[in-house]
Amino acid sequence: MRENKFLSIYDELVNQIQAGKIKPITKLPSENELVEQYETSRETIRKALNLLSQNGYIQKVRGKGSFVLDVSRYDFPVSGLVSFKEIAQKMGKPWKTIVNELEVLHPDDYLQKQLHLSSKDYVWKVIRSREMDHERIILDKDFFNKKVVINLTKEICEGSIYEYLEHVAGLKISFAKKEISVVEPTEEDRRYLDLKEYNHLVMVKNYVYLEDMSLFQYTESRHRLDKFRFVDFARRGN
After folding, report:
1. Which end of the chain is more exposed for a tag (fewer CB within 10 A), N or C?
2. Dihedral, CA of residue 16, residue 18, residue 22 and residue 24, to nearest 10
3. Cα–Cα distances in angstroms (integers) from residue 50 to residues 46, 55, 138, in the given order
4. Residues with Cβ within 8 Å of residue 219, at least 6 apart in sequence
5. What three-state secondary structure class fits 29?
6. Nearest alpha carbon to residue 9 among 41, 45, 43, 42
7. Pairwise pLDDT comparison (67 vs 147), residue with the higher score
8. Average of pLDDT values for 16-41?
9. Which part of the chain is the HTH gntR-type domain (predicted)?
10. Whole-number Å distance between alpha carbons of 176 and 6
11. At residue 73, does pLDDT exceed 90?
């Protein structure tokens, strides 16, 4: 028996999960049943199950067995500062950005507070639906300080605003403060997203800063609840 048989068992189960042959929330056969099915040892099965658990395919429940997790969700990095275009291209899925609104306006009281501006300043308002796999699953509401972001066009907004700001406008985007909450959808959300039966959204507020520590962007990014899992890498320091 090959020492790496657990890897072939792992690969076979992963393929079945990804292909939808084993549905989310389904309970896997018991260790004893898998031992018989694959004609191998309990240790080999446990190695395969541990690897499935580590990589987010199953959840082991003490005394009940192993249950398949929903792997159709897209990983959204919590700590990273990346554009939707970069995420979509990394996933290799068909994607599209739909520009619903693009205008310049004076900030209201709420935006003045978020961007530390006065009523006499101007901001770009950009509302975009993000489509992936032919479903509109993110609504991005971006507000940029016009003193910093001088020019925007529909074509720029359909691609990547960050790509334009960094490579054409020469801005150095440094970091963001993020707040994550679960909210009920508004009429605007229902108009611009394919919400289906879902009655809640994950909202990520972003306060984005340049290298010189100046705040130039406030964003509300509203995600359909079933399509994303928010991931991060945490290290315990000394």
Report:
1. C
2. 160
3. 6, 9, 33
4. 140, 141, 142, 143, 204, 205, 206, 208
5. coil
6. 45
7. 147
8. 90
9. 3-71
10. 42
11. no
pLDDT above 50: residue 1:
no
In whole angstroms, give the CA distance from residue 166 to residue 78.
21
Q: How many residues does the chain have?
A: 238
Q: Which pLDDT does position 233 carry in this prediction?
A: 58
Domain 74-231 falls in which CATH fold?
Answer: Chorismate lyase (3.40.1410)
pLDDT of 148 above 50:
yes
Nearest to 50 by CA among 73, 37, 34: 34
Q: Tokens 């990014």 label which residue?
A: 221
Q: Which amino acid is at 143?
A: F
Name the more confident of 185 and 235. Answer: 185
Residue 170 region, left (φ>0) first, then alpha (ψ -120 to 50), else beta?
A: left
Tokens linked to 226: 């079933």
**What's the rounded Cα separation, in Å, for the pair 84 and 86?**
5
pLDDT of 84: 78
pLDDT in tens, 170-215: 999 999 999 999 899 999 999 999 998 778 898 999 999 999 999 9
Please report, for the chain, the start and end positions of each structural domain, with discontinuous segments joined by +.
Answer: 5-68, 74-231
174's tokens: 């440094």
Strands laid side by side in the 215-224 sheet: 95-105, 123-132, 135-145, 215-224, 201-210, 173-183
Using alpha carbons, select from 204, 237, 210, 208 the residue that is nearest to residue 77.
204
Helix (H, G, I), strand (E, B) or coil at 28: coil
Burial class (CB in 10 A: 0-12, 13-18, 19+), 144: buried
Q: Tell the CATH topology of 5-68.
A: Arc Repressor Mutant, subunit A (1.10.10)
